[in-house]
């Protein structure tokens, strides 16, 4: 009796993966490696890169502007992720429990489809201190103009609010997709036992949504640290560095002051911080495990 040898599809799999691997190496791997190299040089676009060791990193750790940018970014991350996740979770739950309208889902996705620069310009005009539509409305009810982008207290919450408006719908759809994977009979059984919507949300929805919620939080964390477009269009890091996030700090060092090596060191440092935060987040949320068995 002859036995058929199992077919080995590994070669075919590698052939299918090859274009992706080449693209990743060319557009991500090589630039990342060059960035790490530039971070230990004094490259400034006008001279040949010269190796300086850890000088850029030492200077970075002693730079008050860098740490201020990190604190400003952390404040933005707290505002953005907190508001965006809570709103998205609420919207996703309402869609899951009350309506599953395709029109509503398409409407929620519209702000996410608009380019960030366009969104920044739109809200800059709406919230302008002198001519903005929102301040005109405030004036009609007897309230003074609010410097949404020119007041240190309002600037960062305003930027966070703009991006929350832009990305909440997309985040809600991700969470909604995760909720659709939860078996309906769990809700039916809990309802028969007398559980209300809030208790079902705490006891069923949140625990079983943990892997998707972990993914959303990790993506939101990385995206929040990469905030740049809205800042560049509306506040340009002001007022008085109140919105100078780390990406804008790196941009200024690289393309205004031409400190390419120093900017590369800041970028590498940021990548390491994001890696550590992501690992901690995944660990705390137990992202690889689900309560759905």
Explain what the structure shows.
Helix 2 (55-61) crosses helix 13 (260-285), helix 3 crosses helix 7 (152-179) and helix 12 runs antiparallel to helix 13. The protein has helices at 10-38, 55-61, 64-97, 102-113, 116-126, 133-140, 152-179, 184-192, 197-208, 210-225, 229-234, 246-255, 260-285. It has a single domain, classed as Orthogonal Bundle (MetI-like fold), CATH 1.10.3720. It contains 13 helices and no strands. The protein is mainly α. The longest helix is centred in the first third of the chain and has 34 residues, at 64-97. The protein is globular and about 75 Å long.
What CATH calls the topology is: MetI-like fold
**In CATH's first tier, which class applies?**
Mainly Alpha
**Overall structural domain count:** 1
Main β-sheet description:
none
> Can you say what the CATH homologous superfamily is?
MetI-like
Helix content: over 70%
Count every beta strand, where a strand is a DSSP E run of 2 or more residues. 0
- Give unreliable regions as ranges: none
Radius of gyration: 24 Å
DSSP helical segment count? 13
Question: What average pLDDT do the residues reach?
Answer: 90
Structural class: mainly alpha
Write the element-wise H/E pattern from the N-terminal end onward: HHHHHHHHHHHHH
Assigned CATH architecture: Orthogonal Bundle
Shape: globular
How far apart, in Å, are the first and last alpha carbons? 41 Å
Estimate the strand proportion: under 5%
């Amino acid at each position: 009796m002859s036995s058929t040898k199992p077919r080995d599809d590994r070669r075919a799999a590698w052939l299918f993966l090859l274009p992706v691997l080449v693209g990743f190496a060319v557009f991500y791997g090589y630039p990342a490696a060059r960035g790490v190299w530039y971070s230990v040089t004094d490259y400034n676009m006008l001279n040949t890169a010269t190796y300086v060791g850890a000088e850029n990193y030492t200077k970075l750790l002693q730079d008050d502007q860098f740490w201020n940018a990190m604190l400003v970014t952390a404040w933005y991350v707290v505002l953005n992720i907190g508001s965006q996740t809570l709103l998205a979770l609420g919207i996703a739950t309402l869609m899951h429990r009350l309506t599953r309208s395709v029109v509503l889902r398409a409407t929620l996705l519209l702000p996410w489809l608009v380019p960030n620069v366009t969104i920044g310009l739109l809200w800059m005009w709406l919230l302008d201190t002198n001519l903005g539509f929102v301040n005109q409305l405030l004036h009609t009810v007897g309230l003074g103009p609010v410097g949404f982008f020119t007041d240190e207290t309002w600037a960062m919450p305003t930027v966070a609010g703009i991006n929350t408006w832009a990305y909440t719908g997309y985040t809600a759809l991700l969470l909604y997709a995760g909720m659709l994977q939860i078996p309906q009979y769990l809700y039916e059984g809990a309802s028969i036992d007398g559980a209300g919507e809030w208790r079902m949300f705490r006891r069923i929805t949140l625990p079983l949504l943990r892997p998707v919620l972990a993914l959303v939080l990790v993506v939101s964390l990385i995206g929040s640290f990469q905030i740049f477009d809205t800042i560049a269009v509306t506040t340009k890091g002001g007022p008085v560095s109140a919105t100078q996030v780390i990406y804008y700090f790196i941009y200024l060092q690289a393309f205004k002051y031409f400190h390419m090596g120093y900017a590369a060191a800041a970028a590498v440092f940021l990548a390491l911080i994001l890696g550590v935060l992501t690992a901690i987040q995944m660990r705390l949320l137990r992202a690889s495990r689900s309560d759905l068995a």
